[in-house]
Design a protein that fits this description.
The structure holds 2 protein chains of 2 kinds. In chain A, 10% of the residues lie in helices and 29% in strands. By secondary structure, chain A is mainly beta. A 5-stranded antiparallel sheet of chain A has the order 10-9-8-11-12, with no helix packed on it. In chain A, strands 4-3-7 form a 3-stranded antiparallel sheet, with helices on one face. A two-stranded antiparallel sheet of chain A has the order 1-2. By secondary structure, chain B is α/β, with parallel strands linked by helices.
Chain lengths: 173, 382
């Protein structure tokens, strides 16, 4: 193995040493599988997404209409009270234009950047909504406060998942 | 400095093999609501929250963040201990002892049914360079440990099986235990071999459940509870992780954790002073090894005592009256919580059909499971 000894006793190796098998390396693909029980709140939320609807839970003490729905109000510390349908429209609370993928690799040249956004949903309490992505929009035209609407998958393609909404797109007019 | 810390409220779910109707959120919420109700408090009264959670087991990175909502701990001082509940209990006790926190909440949860590749997850506790390439699994480590224990004539194979028979029978009287059963020594010995001498029935099966407890200062205790249970001592210790050179016969870390807790609790003669014990029995022989490490029996004597019924309900030292891990279920980081919970119920005289008479001092011991050597002990009294 070629080793370059430098000052301070540090041992450096060249990346080529790893590629050429001159360094001991071990590779094992971990098999880590989880199956999270959704519980009544998120379970119902996902079932409703499959029907093309967005549902929230209301706390009758603080009056908040909360999405994602929860069976208890974490602020009032009591069970929530009612199911409430909210709209599939809202406004952009915050967004980012991202040029890296989930694994930190750069997007391919010419590909569109990722457009994650937090959407405050109409009918839910202020500041509550959905983390999703934006579509059918030029990145430079996105503004905080912009009105958007859900673009749904076709009913037969929906599976009860957050991805049953393809993206949120600007409301025209 | 304050001397005593009280457990002023407990809340828990049933321990079950699956819990498909609830997410981890609703499980902890159920336990928390009950615990706060018992102590007559609300989350706003709590000065510090301590959760027990291990990212690998939950399937969330920084699972700390996912503990708060269901405890009412949002925007409050909260922290997470990646150990056993008894480690968290020790931290909670220290918080109260500083006199900066009067009311502290401690939580633990198991959602084992959501972990679909448990053997793979446990194998990640083995050294990746020296152990994993040999396809050594954690269950093999259990076999190595038990074989050495038996070879040193510390117990017979039948005495280990007697632990399973006792604990599964005890669990039949515990309404929240998942694995109560009437089994015989032969059932255990004839069950499917896993890693000899460990057989299927020697291993505690997994269970789900949540436990929340409210701790408070001695001064506040009378206003929160008319039957406080006191934490008199806590201790914890870990041996080397090195499988190649660790002590295989004795649970040295358990002994040191026990000695630390005894010293704090002022217990000079554990075998005489402890009235009942809930010790880790994740693998049958572990109960015997742990009882001896905790000086509750002389080396080589715990197995005989089990055979003679001395650790059964009504014996001189009832052990795992709740059913233990073998009868209640293996709850991962919530395992110690189930043991402390049983002590609280017993010391309050609320254990129903399985009540131990005249119980005034109890010991709970947790072990972090194969292949670890990490242990924690708590001594409680009424």
């Amino acid at each position: 193995m070629e080793l370059d000894k430098k000052e301070l006793g540090a041992t450096h190796y060249k990346e080529s040493a790893l590629k050429e098998g001159k360094l001991l390396s071990l590779a094992k693909q971990p098999k880590l599988q989880y199956a999270w029980d959704n519980g009544p709140a998120i379970g119902r939320y996902l079932e409703e997404l499959k029907e093309g609807r967005i549902i929230a839970r209301k706390c009758n003490k603080c009056r908040r209409i909360m999405i994602p729905p929860r069976m208890f109000c974490e602020l009032c510390w009591r069970p929530t009270d009612e199911w409430v349908y909210v709209k599939d429209t809202g406004k952009v609370n915050t967004f980012s234009i991202c040029y890296v993928n989930w694994d930190a690799s750069r997007i391919k040249k010419g590909d569109k950047p990722h457009l994650p956004a937090v959407i405050e949903i109409d009918g839910a309490s202020e500041g509550m909504g959905i983390l999703h992505v934006l579509g059918e929009v030029e990145p430079e035209k996105i503004k905080i406060g912009m009105k958007v609407k859900a673009a749904w998958k076709k009913p037969e393609e929906r599976e009860g998942a957050i991805t049953d909404i393809l993206y949120f797109k600007p409301v025209r007019g | 400095m304050r001397e005593k810390v009280a457990i002023a409220g407990i809340g828990y779910t049933a321990f079950t093999s699956v819990s498909p109707g609830s997410s981890y959120r609703e499980l902890t919420y159920e336990a928390a609501v009950k615990a706060y109700d018992e102590a007559g408090i609300e989350p706003k009264d709590v000065d510090s929250f301590i959760c027990t959670s291990e990212d690998f087991l939950e399937g969330y990175s920084i699972s700390d963040e996912y503990c708060n909502d269901q405890l009412g701990a949002v925007l409050k001082p909260a922290q997470t201990i990646p150990g056993d509940f008894i480690h968290s209990l020790a931290v909670g006790m220290m918080h109260v002892l500083t006199e900066r926190f009067d009311i502290v909440v401690v939580q633990a949860l198991s959602k084992a049914s959501n972990m679909k590749t448990i053997p793979e997850m446990i194998n990640f506790a083995l050294d990746p360079v020296l152990n994993r390439p040999l396809d050594i699994t954690a269950y093999m480590v259990a076999g190595l440990e038990m074989n050495r224990f038996l070879a040193e004539e510390r117990a017979t194979r039948k005495q280990c099986a007697a632990v399973v028979v006792k604990n599964k029978a005890n669990a039949l009287l515990n309404p929240v235990a998942a694995y109560g059963a009437r089994v015989s020594i032969d059932h255990v010995l004839d069950s499917e071999p896993i890693a000899e001498p460990v057989c299927l029935l020697d291993v505690a099966p997994y269970a789900d459940g949540a436990v929340v407890m409210v701790l408070c200062s001695e001064k506040l205790a009378p206003s929160l509870s008319d039957r406080p249970v006191w934490i008199n001592g806590v201790g914890w210790s870990s041996d080397s992780p090195t499988l190649e050179s660790r002590e295989w016969t004795d649970a040295v870390a358990v002994r040191l954790a026990g000695d630390m807790a005894y010293k704090m609790a002022g217990i000079a003669c554990p075998a005489k002073d402890v009235d009942l014990a809930e010790v880790n029995d994740e693998i049958s022989f572990k109960e015997l090894q742990h009882l001896e490490a905790l000086r509750l029996f002389d080396p080589g004597q715990a197995g005989k005592a089990t055979e003679d019924g001395r650790t059964s309900p009504g014996g001189t030292l009832p052990v795992n009256v709740s059913g233990g891990g073998l009868g209640v279920g293996h709850l991962f980081e919530c395992s110690g919580a189930q043991k402390v919970l049983e002590l609280v119920l017993q010391l309050r005289g609320e254990a129903g059909e399985r009540q131990v008479s005249d119980a005034s001092v109890g010991l709970a011991q947790a072990w972090r499971g194969i292949p670890s050597t990490s242990a924690a002990v708590a001594i409680l009294s009424n």
